[in-house]
Amino acid sequence: MGKLNGKIAIITGSDSGIGQAMATAFAREGADVAVTWHTDEDGAQITAERVRQAGGRSLVCRLEVTDEASVQALFRAVDEQLGVPDILVNDAGVGKSKAFTELTYEDFDRVLKTDLYGPFLCAREFVRRRQNAGGGGTLLNVTSVHDAIPSPNNVAYGAAKGGLLLMTRSLAMELAPLKINVNAIAPGLIRTPMTMQRVDDPAQREQEMPHIPWHRPGQPEEVAELALYLVGPDADYITGQDFVIDGGLEMNWGQGA
User: What's the whole-model pTM score?
Assistant: First the structure.
């Protein structure tokens, strides 16, 4: 019997990378999964097929996380086709590496809207449903090691992820009476479509890997296994926490000073 038997999960950004790996892992443990995509419908269909092969029901929806109507439409579709969601993972996100003085209002706005407003809109719909269901459920936000560690040329990303971490902690306190667990996962360098060009380039690897004590990028499946634990029954006593998974990268903060 799987740890998530009978559970319904929504995973935003599950068309590739970490979200796709989570969907596969959750389905393996018995969950039905709503898969969302923004530009990669083919990737979302691959994820959905993996969910079905693992024995779960799946639903595929295009989602614009910055648009309130799109978010509401997703949750209505899940209600109608799968049922009331038990688990929400806010994984969809974007980055923008650019010098601060070159950063446009539109750049900053897009990152904040996607990485911070998006989780807010999705979490609000989720919590309303869990309230109506009498409480319970799990909310998991994917932040980054940059929710705490600054990174040059990434002001917008750091602002969004830092805000998402404090949102996570605030919600954990507010929702504790409803017994809704709220946590965050903070990945370091993980090999996903967003980072593949960096981690597969020999020159970039030679430059970046020495900063990671494990001397390699992480794999999406490793993050998915941590997520599986956090949304499962064994993590019931965990809320308001930020779980770093980075091969030791964060420990190097300040080294060489």
Answer: 0.94
Provide the CB-side half-sphere exposure for 146 (13 A, CA): 17
In whole angstroms, what is the distance from residue 160 CA to residue 157 CA?
5
- Is residue 1 a part of any domain in this protein? no
List active site positions: 157
Structure tokens at 230: 């956090």
Res 196: pLDDT: 66
Residue-wise pLDDT for 162-209, tens only, equals: 999 999 999 999 999 999 999 999 999 998 877 767 767 777 777 788
In a domain? residue 87: yes
Domain residues for the domain of 164 are 8-245
Q: Which residues contact 103 (CB under 8 A, 6 or more apart)?
A: 96, 155, 156
Split into its structural domains, the chain has a count of: 1
The CATH number for 234's domain is: 3.40.50.720
150 is written with which tokens?
A: 């600054």
Three-state SS sequence of 102-130: HCCHHHHHHHHHHHHHHHHHHHHHHHHHH
Residue 203 within a domain: yes
Give which of 197, 181, 192, 189 is closest to 229, Cα–Cα. 181
- Would you call 78 helix, strand, or coil by DSSP? helix
251 lies in some domain: no
CA dihedral 142→148→149→152, nearest 10 degrees, is: 80
